[in-house]
Design goal:
By secondary structure, the chain is α/β, with parallel strands linked by helices. Strands 1, 2, 3, 4, 5, 6, 7, 8 and 9 form a nine-stranded mixed sheet that branches. Helix 2 links the parallel strand 1 and strand 2 (about 50-55). The chain has 14 helices and nine strands. Keywords: Signal.
Length: about 350
Amino acid sequence: MRNLASLSAIALIASAAAAQSETLTVSWWGYNGDKLDANIIQPFKEMCGCDVVFETGNNADRLGKLQARGGKGVDVIFLTDAYSQIGVEQGVFQKVDPAKIPNLENIYPVARDPQGGFGPAYTVGRIGIVYDSATVEPITSWSDLFRDDLGGMVSLPGITTTAGPMVVVQAGMVAGTDAYEDDAPAFELIEALKPQVVKNYNNGSEMVNLISTGEAQITMTQDFTLGSLKNAVPTMTWADLEDGDIAVLNTLNIPTGSENVDLAHEFINFVLSDEVQQKEAEQGVDAPINMNVELAPEQAAMWTYGQEAIDALNTMDYAKMNAHKSDWIDMWNEIFGM
């Protein structure tokens, strides 16, 4: 018996040592970093006995680095679905094993497998228009973004951000055309908007800074920035658009070159857990995708919360968008002199 006990003790020590030696590399935006560290990273490190390191940057930069490294260097990557779809098409992600992510059964069906087996969404967001109701007349439709009384107030998302190509699609809609079929009217409208634009932004932190310093009063953004915007300028208001907001599913993907695949699955499962999803929603970090999260009305007001709200969002055809993106980047840069 003493021999068996000794062997068991040695095995436990070896297992703990192996876990301690593992380092999970996570690629994400770095936005709301303090809250993400407290809600996800520190408790996960305590649970797994491993270390976690980061790579930060916007979608385009981080996906570009991953592609350049042949899918290596990162174990889990956070991306908006517009960019993770590019990664899927370019073969830098591996399929996940649903059996290793039991919390999948607790999230809304739309988020469980949005891209054919390459990973779940951990939040459902919306992209819409935000404005300072103290200085701007109410905005009630996408056409209002192109009003001529907004001179020097607008900050648009850069064309390489998630929302940038959506400006083209929405401009086409306002111009009465399908931008995927004929993008000229959309870019004519964007060029007419140029005098209203104070600066385009490339990430959420830059956009919040433009609003907080008073350089801009109107922008098009994803709802996870609303809490920071209202903290900076309490009168910032999410526009109630009669033609609806745009759905965004932020996904979790495991690159083909991950060196810690089991630990990556464990991390994804933790991000989808009731506890993490509840804290993230209550603290204004991300909208919950977990169906067990319960929010007070004032907490739910800032999020896409519940099946009915999810069903009301407009969706984008990312395959068509990605096919046009290169041309749209050139046309956009020609207008804004980049």
